[in-house]
Write a structure and sequence with these properties.
CATH superfamily: Ribonuclease Z/Hydroxyacylglutathione hydrolase-like
Low-confidence stretches: 1-5
Structural class: alpha/beta
Shape: globular
Radius of gyration: 19 Å
Largest sheet: 8 strands, mixed
Number of domains: 1
CATH class: Alpha Beta
Strand order of the largest sheet: 1-15-2-3-4-5-6-7
Mean pLDDT: 93
Number of helices: 11
Strand content: 15-25%
Length: 324
Amino acid sequence: MGLAGSVALLPAANAAAPASKGPRLLLLGTQGGPNFNAQRGETASAVLLDDRIYLVDCGYGALGALVRANLNYRAVEHVFLTHLHDDHAADLVALLGHQWTGGRVTPTIVHGPAGTRRLVDAAIRYNQVNEEIRLVDEARTVRVAQMFRAQEIPSASEPVVVMRDADITVRAVQNTHYPASTLRRMPHRSIALRFDARGSSIVFSGDTAYSTNLVGLARGADVLVCEAMHVPATRRSFDERVAAGAYADNPEGIWRHIVDTHTPLDVAGRMAREAGVGTLVLNHIIPGGWNPELDDEFYRREAAREFSGRIIVGRDGLLIEDLK
């Protein structure tokens, strides 16, 4: 399927628009794993509703991607983190700090699973050195600690409401990015998110293996944004990186995490089919930029083994305006 009509690839685009009837989806970073590269930034997306920007994940490159899309990063009031791995949160400290430096004076709320409060507190501490200088040198009065707040989302097997206003409702459910043996040893969790606004719905899988909770959350949604991995190609890319010196601390342990806790392409299609969604958007692409010989049609064909609906292969800067 080509990028035409209501689906546009906008690498240095203007995603801003006048008041719209419903939400739009902008993919800011689409690389899977902590593997940013020249082709793809780390995971970040935006749900756009009129002039509001709801940021979903904030991997490395998210701030620059907002700027390239001509979106006002100072206007981001809500950030939603599916989990706290660095490839989903690395740019949070930069986003929040630049919001303060850029003159935002109302709070930004960061929503995420257990540990989000510690992450936001750390971002505040990081930015306080910058604050100390500018309070004196520029006679500022707003403090960094006034600006940034955390809302921790409880983990649950049934959807819980994270945020609701007159136009939009956001729900979350725990997914299966962390196996049971890991969950017993730590408080951290991983979630999927659903945005319902003006009769349209977008679901973000987050990082996950097959998840019945996710299927339930996505039931009947217009769009499922789901991570997607081709396992053999990912193994080849992984081995090449190990040979070049990456993952020196227990590479096979890292590989087990990659292969056991992410979504193969056919499983992404299966979950989209079982949920009865209208469109499957492949995101968090693995191996992605590390294996450029796998083109969009390859990814689409693998997911289509299980899902016969519309399939869009995510690219940085891809704006989807018609969700139906």
